[in-house]
Every structure is written in structure tokens, then in C-alpha cells.
Design goal:
InterPro entries: Smr_dom (IPR002625), Smr_dom_sf (IPR036063). Pfam families: Smr (PF01713). It comes from [Clostridium] methylpentosum DSM 5476. The protein is α+β, with helices and mostly antiparallel strands. It has one domain.
């Protein structure tokens, strides 16, 4: 899954931790992207750091924290960084 121009949006920090940058996406595009990732992610992945940004408004943050639903999501944690939400996975 790559962004136009070849920039990778997904970065595996470890086998269990992943970072996904969605901050330049539209709400529905980002939601579908995250749902697709969660459905296809290896069962070893236990934590996803979602970089949604904060200076451009709250649309993506609210979508991740309130609107994103998936059976793998165990918890949604707010970070000290307002541009990040951490998803704990089953």
C-alpha cells in the first residue's frame, strides 16, 4: 500500500508494531484504507500507530477515534501527540 509518488504509508516498527500515515487522505479514503489494512494484517501485529495529523482539523482524528470499527480493534488510545491515535489489536 503506497501513496502516490511511491512514498510508503505503512512502516513496520517491529513485527508487532506498525505506523500508518493517513494525514493527507480524505475521511472515507482513510477509513477504507485502515479497514483494508486491519483485515489483511498479520496476526502478530498488536499495535497500530495511526498518524492522522491535527492542524488541518479534526475529521480524521474523529474518524479514527469514533467512527472506525473493526473486529481486531481491542482499544483506541489517545497519545500525548494530538496528531496520533494508537490502536491496540486482538
Amino acid at each position: 500500500m503506497n501513496r502516490k509518488g511511491g512514498m510508503t504509508m505503512i512502516r513496520y516498527v517491529t513485527a508487532q508494531q506498525v505506523e500508518i500515515d493517513i494525514h493527507e487522505m480524505k475521511r472515507e479514503q482513510a477509513k477504507k484504507y485502515l479497514e483494508r489494512f486491519l483485515s489483511s494484517a498479520n496476526g502478530n501485529v498488536r499495535e497500530v500507530t495511526v498518524i492522522h495529523g491535527f492542524s488541518g482539523g479534526t475529521v480524521l482524528r474523529d474518524m479514527v477515534q469514533k467512527g472506525l470499527k473493526h473486529h481486531r480493534i481491542k482499544a483506541k488510545l489517545r497519545s500525548f501527540n494530538p496528531g496520533i491515535t494508537i490502536l491496540e489489536l486482538n
